[in-house]
Amino acid sequence: MSGVEPGTPCWVDLATPDLADAKRFYRQLFGWTERVSRQPQADGYITFLLDGRAVAGAGPSAATEIPVWSTYVATDDADLAASRVRAAGGQVVVAPFDVFDQGRMGVFADPAGATFSVWQPRAMRGAEVFNVPGSLTWSELVTPDPEGAHRFYELVFGWHLVNGPTGPVSYPAWRCGARIVAGVTPLREGLPAQLSAYWSVFFAVADADAVATLAAQLGGTILVPPGDFPQGRLATLRDPSGALFSILAPAT
Question: Could you report how far apart the first and last alpha carbons of the chain are, in Å?
């Protein structure tokens, strides 16, 4: 996965009211280190590194905002993506803007309210490593309206629905070109009620049980305990500030 092909989830970042504690938590959980942006206008934004390669970002949020991991989808034209979002019945939350010389991004919401971003790469191409322990391995839309989501994301990104055991999953997923890029699933029990629809990020791990236990020891919460699925053993967690994420030990 290159992370730069249009229509491919290419980056995730965390908005959190306690960036210092997020550094502590994810450093100990995944072995990440940090690189602070040199741009004075970046407001303390950091890039998390795994063995020196970019895997995710993080920045401060207002104390009143819900801490959240956000998914970015690569695009050749962020402004065109915004037009397609509007035409498909979604909302432009933040109109496309330039992020220094790094790229151009916009923040959108689908008709069910799930927010996501697009990334038009320039100097920063996206994550530099995927699918190894401590890096992004899967993206999944959790929504009360899967059928509406199929129509929306096909219009915006050209994604096509695939049913059955295809690629890394054995449930409905989206294909972009020849690649399976994301999954879609109805809302599940046991997750926060305020999340009516959201994009879930999955980080690869070698041992889901050990990482879930460690997350709890570090001040996080196990929302859905580790369980076996066709794609591997996974769990859904919350970090100490409340940001939701999942871990997946892929099936061998």
Answer: 19
